[in-house]
Queue: 3 jobs
Job 1
Amino acid sequence: MPMSSSNVAVRLLYVLLGMILLGITHDGVSEADAPYLYVLGTAQDAGFPQAGCYQSHCMRGWNDADKRIFATSLAMIDTSKRKKYLFEATPNFPEQLYMLEQQAPASDGFSLEGIFITHAHMGHYSGLMYLGREVMGSEQVPVYLMPKMAHFIRNNGPWSQLVDLNNIVLMPLADKTSIIFDSFSITPFLVPHRDEFSETVGFLIQGNNKTALFIPDINKWSRWNKDIAEEIKKVDYALIDATFYGQGELPGRDMSKIPHPLVTETMTLLTRLPKVERNKVWFIHMNHTNPLLDTSSDETNFVESQGFNIARTGMRFPL
């Protein structure tokens, strides 16, 4: 999807706002020299608007390309080492790879050093297909996976062909075991979710100065063996599951069978936190029905008035 000048302007505005609000890192290193997370998409697996949806909320996106939103993905950009990484390989992989190229171009020496996958649902791994011989014909791109996820890729076509042709190299992850890089570390941790084909993880991403929590998919917070409020206190940014805003969002469907924590539930759970802690929360991974996708909705205004934030494409989080 080509980006219009207005779309580019909006994304640049988010970048500039991030620089103003976040300033310099804790040790005095300028943001330009620190690794940072870059938001490539904030929608649920199917993006916005969703295929087959022609209701009024989706028509905003069909009628106006500037209102379309890619599936949730982050990039890690290590400016000093000229390296870049992806979190999730979504169905919007071509567009998001182009966005990443604009932010950290190969012509400036940036190389794609790896892709981290949370689980085997379509919005999180299906973009790997673009690395195959029908498209990029990549060579040995490291893909970091938990054991069941690696087994799924290795033993099911067409993904197994990526391994057989050395388009990708499967890199093992283990629960609560950190992968150490030059300027940051990444630690996967298991979370409860619908694990039909693989386990599901979130990631703790630690830079020299700041730390981010990334949990795009999880069942109700009460089903996790951790207290999300306490985990938020340990980090600087918490990009967490906001698939659905509230009850009744999917008329005719039993939402208990899709047990994501509702945004309203998460806010209630975290109301006891002081505003400085609530301000660490950045809601992400929003279904096409979620009114938070609309930057001018009443729900967006309410969430922000309570001290929480909503992740938007183009935002930067220095580490």
Job 2
Amino acid sequence: MIVTVSREYGALSSSVSRIVAERLGYRLVDEQLPVVAAWRLGTSADVVETVSERPRSYGERVLDQLGGGMPEAVQPPDTDEFPVETRHAIEAAVREEASAGNAVIVGRSGHAILAGRTDLVRVYVHAPLRWRAARVAQSLHLDEAAARAEIARIDEARRTYARDGYRVTPGDPANYDLVIDTSRFGVDGAAAIVVAAVRAAAT
């Protein structure tokens, strides 16, 4: 089975994903995705991570529009704000990891890239903004205003990446099999729900 975990920033999805992978005995595919994509592109993982985690400048969008080419997975809108080559590399890395089976794949629109697989459980992890801001502030040693600004920046980049590349809206229940609020169930509780869902889907 393949589990894709999409998320709002600060909802502790990485912790949930790690526990799910441990309890199921699956591979956790998270930080290595930018590394694999970067290897394909001949660039650094930081470049790949930056592209999918922040809004792009006007100059970058203009340069992209002069490039051309299309992603292999889905036909995006004409205003795709992210480099086609980077999206190609991320899609290839996600498919490669999924082809090995039994994995928890975090982020990078994996739920859209792998859509149609019968062995797929698509999870969305979210939480109220105030709850997330408190955790981001503590983790990054920020005040609440700065934490909220960082959340807004990254969440918007992820929404744009998903919308421009795959015409999907993060958080829309129609795009997932399971939507979980970590503020309600906690990390362990959310992980237990995911594990139960995966085991039920596998039977």
Job 3
Amino acid sequence: MTIRIFTVALLAGLAAGLVVSAMQHFTTTPIILHAEQYESGSAGGGHASLNLDARGLGGAKLFLAHGAAEHAQDGAEPWAPEDGIERTLYTVLANVLTGMGFALVLTAVMFMRGRPVDGRQGVVWGLAGFAIVSLAPSLGLPPEVPGSVAAELNARQIWWAFCAVSTAAGLALMFLGNKSWMPAIGVLALLVPHIVGAPHPDEMGGAVPPELAAHFVAASLVTAAVFWAFLGWITGTLAKRFQLIAD
């Protein structure tokens, strides 16, 4: 059974990682490349129109967790793959590994649930993953383009993890709980991270025009939703194909 679980997760993660890498070519990649021009100061003043030349998949990133890249405090440039094929390959690899990791979690949860699933039911599981990992945290920490001003990285990561865990617990209590009081506690769990509040910088702003940043938030969330829906569908389909859970 363990072999089946890993087989389903690896195949589903591979497929979802490749699909989202291709989708990013038309969604987040052009925005990231354009934002990097503002970050480096090469875009000039004013609000230039969006350059849709994505140069392959270079610069594509899977913003399932939120936060722009941190820069070294001593002024040294952090390592990054070279633009072109190297950056593309690293991006696709990161997307595939991310997909496999999430698929493994999704497959394990489906198995522990103990009820047969198919592609349609898998989509529901996938959208729950989207709500936990992307949608709920984005209410406090929306996806950020390069050059955005952000709070300290560790604080953002801690709040993101807190929000994801709390959202997962809330959804589980609301939809999987068998006691009458559980939905009410579930709603409270959904609200707690946002009552506490996400960390934010003292001053807002950055080199990137707000229109571009807003476009990136929308594109990132839509891309993440497609990723999770497809991941859930392919995971449920493969779970049924490999008879992961007996009828």
